[in-house]
Each structure stands twice: as C-alpha cells, then as structure tokens.
Design a protein that fits this description.
CATH superfamily of the largest domain: Dihydrodipicolinate Reductase, domain 2
Structural class: alpha/beta
Strand order of the largest sheet: 12-11-7-10-9-8-15
Distance between the termini: 41 Å
CATH topology of the largest domain: Dihydrodipicolinate Reductase, domain 2
Number of helices: 12
Low-confidence stretches: 59-66
CATH class of the largest domain: Alpha Beta
Shape: globular
Length: 352
C-alpha cells in the first residue's frame, strides 16, 4: 500500500460527489484514484475534477471473474455511494477483490442481503464500514459519551428525528424510503445511544402517511412517520421523520434519564442572530452536507485510518444490520397496524 489510501468511489451522484471531494481535498491520508458510475458522463465529470480515472460499466465491476477497477493494483479501498439497491452487491464485489469497503447507508435492503455482504467481507478477511455519519458528529458523539459515563443515570426515554427541507420529486421516492433510507440514521443513533447502557431493542410500532404529498400515496410514498421502540431495559424511544421542514434541515437527538438529560443537534447555520422590533431571526442549515460536512469528512478519515492500520472500523456491518432490522420491523408494523417484535423480523424475510 502507498503512503495514502488509494480509493475507488462507486456512484457519482449527489452524495458520491460530496464524498469524492472530501477524499480528494479534506482527507490527506487518502487519494481518489477512480470513479465508477453507469450514467454516461457522470464518472468522467467527477473524476476529471480530481485527476482520477473514470469507468462506466458497473456490470463489469460487479462481475465475479473480472472485477476491473475494484481489483486494480492501484486501488487500496472502495467507497460505495451508489443507489441503495446496489449496495450489498457492491460490498460483495469489493470483498471479492480483497478491498476494504466503506458503504453508504443502508448497507442492504433485506436481512438476507445484509448477511451476504457481512459474510463476504468476513470470508475475504477485509473490513467494512457503514456511513452512519451522526456517530462522527461531535455533538452526537459527546452526548453518547455522557450516557456511557452514567451522566444521566438510568436511561428511560430517547428521541431522534430527521426532518428534510423539501420533497422535490415525490414520484422518484421508492416505497419504504422513509424507514430504510431516512429513519435508518435515527434507528442507528438510538441503538448506538442505547448500547452505551447495554440495552437492545425488542419491539417496534410505526405509523406513517403521505402528508406532504398525499397525491403520491397510492404509488407507495410515505413522507411522514413516527416510530416507537421498546428496549430490553424498559427504555422507550421515539424516532420521527418528515420530508418537508419549511425552516431547514433538522436533525436532533435526546436521551433522558433518572439523573438528567443530554441533547444533540443544531439547526443554526451560524451563531449570528438578527434582532429587530419584529423579534429575533437566525439562518438555518438547508441540507445534510452542510449540517454534517465535518462528520462526513471525519467518517471517511476514520475509514482511511482503519485501512492503513489494518484495524476494524468502529461502525460496521452488524451495526447496519441491526438498524435495518428495525426498519424492516417498521414496514411490517405499518402493513399490519400492530407492534412488531424484532424477533419476528429475524424469523421471516421481509421483502418490500
């Protein structure tokens, strides 16, 4: 391996472009050497910005006997930022090429695919990190440490929320996205907070609807959701999501206990407040890459460090599988209008 972790990025969309820029410009221990995307011109445009090479045929990249870019001698690691349905296959392909892989959330859409991806990495002896960026956001990490240190006593209530600033194309949102791609972050956050006191989720109850774009409900859109989770220590948590926060991008977390409370999350773009006779005003953050810019860079830097050191990253495939199990339980809960035990999801394959 060279002195810098030579990285191939698969997926040149919005998040892929953000990650490519971070790798190339803000993670000095990494180098972007290749970009892969099947959309004509997409890989080339992104690769040209950073002096990397481009490839367009993802099918060749995925082929077991010809993994092309992923198996190249000048690639040390792979970052997957493609569409969610391709994630598990790309993790398997990277493992087959013997490369450590960073995969954006969700790592898979079914538990069977999650298990397949985890097994492939284990069998290849490589490593897998999943992109749960809130773990690398300073406020969330500090809040979790307070819980781990017993700073709020016995954990009783938890809360996590994600409110996106708008829904530009309701028809382009795949069914169940609110659980598998949006709230998956909140599920991981709640499980991560709970793990600090040794608790695990046992039951899920979810309610969801299309309140932002009701005309798209018949096509499977759910844009608003509230989820209640019960944990084996008795703690109760809620996770909520909306695809239409008029005031900006809103992500917060809270843990309440017998001796206090800890919160994380800030919507303000800066500390500036404008005071007039009408009151006070403050600019808010309008997107995920703005709110979590430092966290995105930190998680990619951690991945590069773990690859260089040959160590396991601190958020892996099992973490992704655990959050996915909660998301799948939510789907069953909405479909059947009842609380769902996590053990039920393990016993049946949820395909939606």
């Amino acid at each position: 391996m060279s002195s810098r972790v030579r990285t191939a990025l698969v997926g040149a969309g919005r998040i892929g472009s953000n990650h490519a820029e971070a790798i190339a410009l803000r993670v000095p221990q990494a180098e972007l050497v290749a970009v892969v995307d099947p959309v004509p011109g997409a890989a080339g445009r992104l690769a040209d910005r950073f002096g990397a090479r481009a490839a367009t045929d993802v099918a060749e990249v995925l082929a077991a006997d010809d993994v092309e870019v992923l198996a190249a001698d000048d690639v040390d690691a792979v970052v997957v930022t493609s569409s969610a349905r391709a994630h598990a296959d790309l993790v398997v392909a990277a493992a087959a090429a013997g490369k450590p892989v960073f995969c954006e959330k969700p790592m898979a859409l079914t538990l069977a695919d999650a298990d397949r991806a985890i097994a492939a990495v284990q069998e290849a002896g490589t490593s897998l990190q999943v992109g749960f960026n809130r773990r690398f956001a300073a406020g969330f990490a500090e809040a979790r440490q307070v819980v781990a240190d017993g700073g709020i006593g016995d954990v009783q209530l938890m809360r996590s929320l994600t409110r996106d600033p708008g829904l530009a194309d309701p028809g382009g949102v795949p069914p169940w996205t609110v659980f598998r791609e949006t709230l998956i972050h909140d599920f991981d956050t709640l499980l991560w907070f709970a793990a600090a006191c040794g608790a695990r989720p046992v039951q899920v109850y979810a309610v969801a609807d299309a309140l932002v774009a009701p005309d798209s409900k018949d096509s499977g859109l759910l844009d608003t959701a509230v989820v209640t989770l019960r944990f084996d220590n008795g703690a109760i948590a809620t996770a909520e999501a909306s695809f239409s926060a008029a005031y900006g991008y809103d992500v917060r977390g809270e843990v309440f206990g017998s001796a206090g409370m800890v919160t994380a999350g800030e919507q303000a773009a800066t500390s500036m407040r404008h005071y007039t006779s009408a009151g006070a005003a403050q600019q808010t953050v309008r997107g995920d890459t703005a709110l979590f810019g430092a966290a995105y860079t930190a998680e990619l830097a951690h991945f590069a460090d773990s690859v260089a050191a040959g160590t396991a990253p601190r958020v892996g495939g099992q973490d992704a599988r655990d959050a996915l199990a909660v998301a799948l339980a939510c789907i069953v809960s909405v479909q059947e209008a009842r609380p769902v035990q996590l053990s039920e999801v393990e016993a049946r394959e949820v395909v939606a």
